[in-house]
Amino acid sequence: MTEIVTRFAPSPTGYLHIGGARTALFNWLFARGRGGKFLLRIEDTDRERSTPEATAAILKGMDWLGLDHDGEVISQFERASRHAEVAHELLAKGAAYKCFATQDEIQAFRDAAQAEKRSTLFQSPWRDADPATHPDAPFVIRLKTPQDGETVIEDQVQGTVRIRNDQLDDMILLRSDGTPVYMLAVVVDDHDMGVTHVIRGDDHLNNAARQMGIYTAMGWPLPVYAHIPLIHGPDGKKLSKRHGALGVEEYQKMGYPAAGMRNYLNRLGWSHGDDEFFTDAQARDWFNLEGIGKAPARLDFKKLENLCGQHIAQSDDAALLHEIVAYLDATDLPALTDAQAENLQKAMYCLKERAKTLPELLEKGHFALISSPVEPDEKAAKSLDPVSRGILSSLTPHLQNASWSRDELEEVTSRFAEANGTKFGKLAGPLRAALAGRAVTPSVFDMMLVLGRDETLTRLAQASTTGEE
């Protein structure tokens, strides 16, 4: 059986777009789920717009998403001589020709065609010219496209797509300065890299018809094509900056976990029954081309948050801590100290539920990241009135002698509340303020267990004396 080889081939003209990230993910899943190879090619032939910074941003975005590639990163620009070699090979076998038409002549042809209401597709007078008549002048090399019949694309997503050959021009392969065009470079690179499946956006569907002409003329096997619909905004219009974040790094900076992002991107235009939440292992096992829909997918931030919350809840504590460290680095926020990292990991069990993003989790974990004395925020400070401070002061000796288990802590505080003619609910606010400096926190018993006896008692003692002269 032939080894499956897919590729992701972005242009390094900016960040890794969310649509590009999904394309990379689909290619990665298809290859990884079948024991194949996933290759990365940087299509950097546009020298004016391609930048090393953009290439770095693409690699960083893929690294965050966990989309590892096989082998070295291929630079399309560096393979220009190989692309030119193929153009000359096509020329030698009569599948391509030298065209000496100038830009003025081409424009004159189109103007005349428009005036006569016929196709403006340029028909070069040099297509069948005797080489003996060739002038000593600059020329381009054009592919000889069949002039009748049709090109049929058997696409795994779009189905059978038929394009009449008289609607295709004799596309340029090599410019007059000898540099190859993108359309030629893509085909040569895909062939030389052994790509078996080309999974890309459906904005490339028409390109496939033209690129197939090169494959056919060279006698190369065609790859399997799968052209996936684009991603639209929630309003159904093409995704743009008005819809919010476009680059993958922005999603990392907003604190979405990579696993949740992968899950969401996978569901954006692909389905496996009614399954919404699934693991990476399930995604690799389930992903296929048949599950990709034809209609454009719509970005839905609520679904993204919901999935991310589920992934945070089910994440391994150490892996989640690793992701938080990367998030803080990406957003230039202060790094965790060793003590903070240790406390946060200890607290993960009571932080993961209901946190949809990493910033939400960090806010819930605020109590584990701060040190004494605790500075309550405005809302929490209201819970520390003189009466509440007196209650905390009275409660502290009872906790000093408690065995530090959840059951005992709950029992001690309940007995204390009952003895003082109140309910535990009345104690919760002051305890939250004392232990975390916040009004919304995890359970006070979880915080006590994470902080330990000494730190808990220290914070309660400090809170009970706050405001005293």
UniProtKB/TrEMBL annotation:
EC class, as a word, reads ligase
UniProt GO MF annotations? ATP binding; glutamate-tRNA ligase activity; tRNA binding; zinc ion binding
Taken from the record, one Pfam family name reads tRNA-synt_1c
List of residues binding ATP: 241
Q: Name one GO biological process term.
A: glutamyl-tRNA aminoacylation
Catalysed transformations (reactions):
tRNA(Glu) + L-glutamate + ATP = L-glutamyl-tRNA(Glu) + AMP + diphosphate
**Residue span(s) of domain Glutamyl/glutaminyl-tRNA synthetase class Ib catalytic:** 3-305
* GO cellular component terms, A-Z: cytosol
Q: Where is the Aminoacyl-tRNA synthetase class I anticodon-binding domain?
A: 333-463
Q: Which Gene3D superfamilies match?
A: 1.10.10.350, HUPs
Subcellular location, principal? cytoplasm
Q: Where is this motif: 'HIGH' region?
A: 10-20
Q: What is its EC number?
A: 6.1.1.17
Q: Pinpoint motif 'KMSKS' region by residue range.
A: 238-242
Keywords, ordered alphabetically = Aminoacyl-tRNA synthetase, ATP-binding, Cytoplasm, Ligase, Nucleotide-binding, Protein biosynthesis
Top-rank taxon: Bacteria
Q: Where in the cell is it found?
A: Cytoplasm
Q: Quote the InterPro entries the UniProt record gives.
A: aa-tRNA-synth_I_cd-bd, aa-tRNA-synth_I_codon-bd_sub2, aa-tRNA-synth_I_CS, aa_tRNA-synth_I_cd-bd_sf, Glu-tRNA-ligase_bac/mito, Glu/Gln-tRNA-synth, Glu/Gln-tRNA-synth_Ib_cat-dom, GluQ/Sye
Do you know which NCBIfam families this protein is assigned to?
A: gltX_bact (TIGR00464)
Q: What does this protein do?
A: Catalyzes the attachment of glutamate to tRNA(Glu) in a two-step reaction: glutamate is first activated by ATP to form Glu-AMP and then transferred to the acceptor end of tRNA(Glu).
HAMAP family per UniProt: Glu_tRNA_synth_type1 (MF_00022)
Family assignment? Belongs to the class-I aminoacyl-tRNA synthetase family. Glutamate--tRNA ligase type 1 subfamily.
- Subunit-level organization: Monomer.
The protein depicted here goes by the name Glutamate--tRNA ligase
The scientific name of the source species is: Pseudoprimorskyibacter insulae
Q: What is the lineage of its organism?
A: Bacteria, Pseudomonadati, Pseudomonadota, Alphaproteobacteria, Rhodobacterales
Gene name, Swiss-Prot/TrEMBL = gltX_1
